[in-house]
Each structure stands twice: as C-alpha cells, then as structure tokens.
Amino acid sequence: MIISVSSEGSRVIFSFELEEGDSRNYGKVEFNQPTCFFEMPDSWSLEDVHPDILGLASLLMTYPFLGNTIKFNFEVSQPFADKVYETTKKVIHSVDKNLSTRSIPNQGVPALAFSGGVDSTAALELMPNQTKSFFLDRYMSEGTKSLYKSEAAHYACNYIEKRGKFITKTVSDFEYIRKPVGFPVDVSNSIPALLLSDFYNLDSIAFGTVLESSYKVGHNNFENYPERTHYKRWGSLFSKVGMPFNLVVAGISEVGTSKVVLQSKYSEIAQSCIRGEVGKPCYNCWKCFRKLLLENVLENGKLTDNSLDFHKLFSIKEARNHLIKNPIKHENVITYITSHYTGENKMMTTLKKKARGDKESMEWLEKWYSPSNSLIFSRYRDEILESIKGHLQVMTESELNQVKNWDMKSHVNDSNTIKLTKELGDMLSDHQASSKHKISQPLKNSSSNDTKMIVKELSNLNQNQKEISNQLNVISNKLDDLNLQLKQKNNSYSGILKRKINALLSR
Ligand SMILES: [Zn+2]
C-alpha cells in the first residue's frame, strides 16, 4: 500500500493507494474510501509530528487491508520499521537510517482515549489529575443515516471539562475507511492522541480496556494478556513511538468499572449506549440490557421483581439474540447479575440457571486482578494503584486462581446447559410472539391515523409547492425586468463614456 500524508489548513489528510497483495476486504468488512482527514488545532503543524507517529497512525487506519509492503511519502526510523517487521511481518520501504525514535518526554503527561462509556470514564477516575483525554468525534455528513448518536458523548466531554479536566475532541471521518463504519483496529481510537503527542507532550496512552477484553474472562477461556499477540504487537509498537500502554482498567471487570463510576463524581454521565441521547440510553440494545441490570444490582445489592420491568427488558430483540447463545457473550456478568436475583419471573429464573447464577455469585468480579499492575505505565503505577484500592478490593489468592482458571468448555457442553439454553430460547420466542400480539392492535389504529395525517400533510405540501412556484415565477419576471433595465443603463453609460473619451481625444 502507498500511504501519503499532507495537510490543508487545519486538516491533516491521509491517502491510501492499494497495490497488488493488499486486500479490499476481511470477513464482512470492506475497504470503503481511499482518504480520510483529522481536524487538528490551528497551531498544530504536520512538520512537528515525528514520522514514526505518522507511521503508527497509518497502520491503525489500514492494518486489516495491508499486504506485505508499505510505502510512505515520508520516512520512519529504522528501529520502528524493524519493530513493525518483527510484530507484523510487513516491510516498510520508506526509512531514514539517521532518524532516531521518539523518546518518552521527561516532563510528560498521561493521555486517555476517551469514548464517553463506563469503562473509559472509570479509567479517567483512576488516573492522575493532569491526565489529558482525547475523544474521537466521528464526522457525520448531512443526511448520514446511523444508529450512532454523539450527543451523549459530547455531553460527557463538556461535563468533564467543566470539572476542570482537560479533554479535546478531534473530528475525523477515518471510520469510513471501512464498511461497515468502525475502527479498523480496536486501539484506533488513540489516533488523535498520537497525532497530538508532541503538541501536548504526552508520555503514555490509556484505554477503557477491561478484564473481559484483556484476559478474556467471560469468553471461552482465560488468556494471559501480556502473552497475547494483541499486546505483543500493538503494545510494543506504541512503546516504540514513546507512547507506552497504560492499561489502568485491564484488571477490572465490567462489574468493577461500573462500581468505580457509580462511586465517582462522573456517575451522572457514564453511558455506554452509543444509540441513546443525553441521560437516556436507548433501552433497546444488548449493552442497555446488561448495564441496566448491573447498575440496579450495584445500587441496591439485589434484584427483585419490582426492580425493573422484565417484560420490557426481555422484549429487546438484540438482547434475546445474545441470550439464546451458548455461551452468552459476557456470561460472567450475567452470572453475577442473576446471582442477585430473588424474584419469580420465569425468564429470569431460567436465565439464572443457564448462567449458573444459582450456583455461583462471582463476587470477585467486583475486585481488582492484581497481576494486571504490569500493564500500568511505571511512571504513574503507584498513584493509580492507590486510586484503584480506594475504590475496589484486591482479589484474594483463590480469587486470582478463579480468573486464571476461567474456562467455559465443560459448562457449555454440559447437557443441562444445553437443555436450559433451549428452554430459554423457547420462552423468549413465546414472549416475542405475545408482545407482538399485544401491541399489534394499537399500532394498527395509529397507523391508519398516521396515513390520514400523511395524506393531509402531502396535500398541504402540494398547495405550498404551488404557491412557492407562483412566487418564483413572479420573482423571475421581476429579475428579467431588472436585467433589461441594467442593460439599458449600461448602454447609456457606455454611450456617455464613449462621448466623453472622444471629446478628450479631440482636444
Ligand atoms: Zn442502548
């Protein structure tokens, strides 16, 4: 791939030219657009950015589509190119042998890739006061249809700023490089912080990566994150450009981050649902299903039939699609939630049995997994550890082993789990059918009303259109008149001028 970087006013523009060996798709994801931009501060200059930073940012934009060779319109350092080859087997052809790498600034400040969700808000709460947060603001052209809403995240950014924290929003269309729209690599949301690393003297980068993503708890089996390819590749590439990973919540589960945020001054803003509005999650997605239940458990210590409207919760289609799987995505969180349920709702009690909430409580999900301290940047480790311990307990030796021995194989293959999965699936489809029946009547009435309304609106619009078209005709006629008058005046002026010039010449 040939990658070029240029700037135009306050915009930095990346262009990608695919070559033989590059790929136009991976899985269901397609390469969609060959350029993208980032809106930078006015006093920012492309010349001041270390080429290795531009190299890493480019990789984060294009990685899934890259073949084995990369050419830039700038030159990176040899150590960076070597690290790229070592971790990805890709060869960079644009190298300046005399260029040294970017080093971690001595008087630097920590950065956080902030998303507005619970996990990165928990990270912010645990990080030092001088932390600078960077929000990637997805560019929305007019008429873009998307479930994504940025209002809640913008509100969160303003909320944080008002409380004296530094946060900056960077508008970019880079998520449209791929279709469906999204991050080409999960850590791509750090690109704004990378591009601004020298501008703000940044010395590390934090994310809202939680225990479930780093160590794969809740997935099939435990994986030691420091030994995973993800960390070996991206962790070492970020270190090579003087922006080492600072994974403050990697040892904290989703249960723990919710707890941290609920205890913090940010409890009002944390909202993981990207489809909702300010203070109003969409109540229609898998994340909402989980977070609503979880917050209820954390706030009240238990879950009863009066806690929430379970009829409504189990009507969330996206949630049903997840719940009928074996294992359920984030099943550990579901186990924790259902273990606190004491009611008699049939769907909840079956879910509780299926997710083992009747046998295990998984209280350790509220605690900190201490081996993750190696993932916190050494400069801030002591301060962050103190902060974590101020919010959460540390796992005991036997709890650490529960994490390390996490394995869902026997549970997933157990005949009882299979039976319960089927039972829950049947219950949920019955529930779906009955909810449909219940709301079909009023919907019908309202739809016929709606049709009448629409017909009326249309005829109004037609009338309006006619009036506008008449007015346009009048205006157009007037314009013709004016044009004619102008022409006449022009002619007479030019006549006068001609005469004056002739008079002058004849003198
Ligand atoms: Zn939602």
Task: Give a brief outline of the structure.
This protein is of the alpha/beta class and 507 residues long. The protein has helices at 51-62, 78-88, 118-126, 151-162, 191-195, 211-214, 229-240, 254-262, 286-300, 310-313, 317-323, 331-339, 346-354, 381-391, 397-404, 409-413, 415-506; strands at residues 2-8, 11-17, 25-26, 29-31, 35-39, 69-72, 76-77, 91-92, 95-96, 109-114, 132-138, 166-172, 178-179, 202-206.
Verbal overview:
- The chain contains 17 helices and 14 strands.
- By secondary structure, it is α/β, with parallel strands linked by helices.
- The strands form four sheets. It has a five-stranded mixed sheet with strand order 5-2-1-6-8. A four-stranded parallel sheet has the order 12-11-10-14. A three-stranded antiparallel sheet has the order 3-4-13, with no helix packed on it.
- It is globular and about 115 Å long.
Please supply descriptive tags for the structure shown above.
507 residues, alpha/beta, 3 domains, five-stranded mixed β-sheet, four-stranded parallel β-sheet, 14 strands, binds zinc ion
Could you tell me the number of beta strands? Answer: 14
User: Which parts are unreliable, with pLDDT below 50 for 5 consecutive residues or more?
Assistant: 439-449
- What proportion of the residues form beta strands (DSSP E)? 5-15%
**Main sheet: which strands, in order across?**
5-2-1-6-8
Ligand types: zinc ion
Oligomeric form of this entry? single chain
Anisotropy-based shape: globular
Number of helices: 17
- Structural class label: alpha/beta
Q: Which percent bin holds the helix content?
A: 40-55%
Q: Please give the alpha-carbon distance between the first and last residues.
A: 74 Å
What number of structural domains do the residues give?
Answer: 3
Rg over C-alpha atoms, rounded to the nearest angstrom: 30 Å
Q: Name the average pLDDT.
A: 90
Main sheet: strands, sense, barrel = 5 strands, mixed
